[in-house]
Amino acid sequence: MKQLILLTFLGINLTSFGYGWIQKADFAGEGRHRTPMLSIGNYIYTGQGHYNGAGVNILFADWWQYDPASNSWSQKADYPEGPVYHASGFVIGNYGYVGLGRTQPGGPGNPYVHENSFYRYDPTTNQWNQIASIPGQGRRGAVSFAIDTYGFVGTGETLGGGELNDFYRYNSANNTWQQIASLPTTGRVSSVAFELNGYGYVGTGGFNSWSGSQNDFWRYNPTTNSWQQMADVGPTNRMEASGFALNGKGYILTGDNASSGTNYSDMWEYDPNGNQWTQIPDFPGTARRYLASVVHDGVAYCGLGTSGTNFKDFWMFDQVLYTIEKQMEELEVVAYPNPVVDHLSIKINGLNNDLAQNLDLTIYSLSGEVVHSQRFDASKIDVNLKSLTGGTYLYKIMYQEKVLKSNKVVVL
Q1: In the chain, what are the domains?
Q2: What phi, psi does 320 have (nearest 5°)?
């Protein structure tokens, strides 16, 4: 009779564990918040921002590149406007476009300036070139998104503290801005925006000099130059949140209820077909505001931000991993026979074969040496261990570098 080891995945509280997340290498610069984050070509770019150190507002001009292939950071050319925070950015083709934000010419103690300038970043040459300035008021905390060859920028706060609802479209072909329909509601700052299925979406944000926040959500149609109100983002008002669109769904997460108020770690998924928000497991890092995020190569990357403490952690959100982890919470793994002479079978009961094909099995000696590895081609695989000497080994079921399950197997 076969000897069986039954390995059951323990139940996980929805609000305490973030399915689908893998922590990556920390940002290589100083921890900070109010930073843009862009995906251009094979890399991710972020920088600028600020932190409040001992009561002094420290601004940054540095610009960094993250390489997902090597999980490493490298510093690039500084932003030419100088230190700036609360800027906004978008990507068209092979270029990044970054502008607006609050500067402090002359450094700490000098008056602030709210910029309306914009620059184009070329990652091939690592150079910044100034483009046409946005025709509206200088501002910080604006939102932006791109649709086809156009960039869209709007909302934000003026130097005098007024919140804006105006919007502008940038034409990269002729380097011009055109004012378009304003967001048909109250002005706001530190909102969330993303492009999804050819529409622009804008939601949440602060108003009334940062003392209040909202959970409303709006869709922009570039064909008709019009806005339509959509379903609210859950029951909680928020500002200074993060958001992105990934594989047909929208996501909004973290933020706070008012400036320097209660920080959030919750995460919401938007289905544009049903115009419906669903709460999903929380972001696994510390609750915070000003989490920066971007979608790159079919996954999302998020990091930085503040809760009073400035963060430099960096995370990847993968929908495939999210689905696998969510299913495996209630699934069981069976490894048999154990002890084994030469052939071991491992079966993940209830996991569909398409998802299983994203998993890898790695077997280690107790000294940590890899002695066998193979990709799952279905939810059940057979493992040839004839070449192994007798002893105890450790096996791990993994998605990329994340271990989903591990246990011991004894080879006779």
Answers
A1: 5-12+331-411 (2.60.40.10), 21-317 (2.120.10.80)
A2: -65, -45
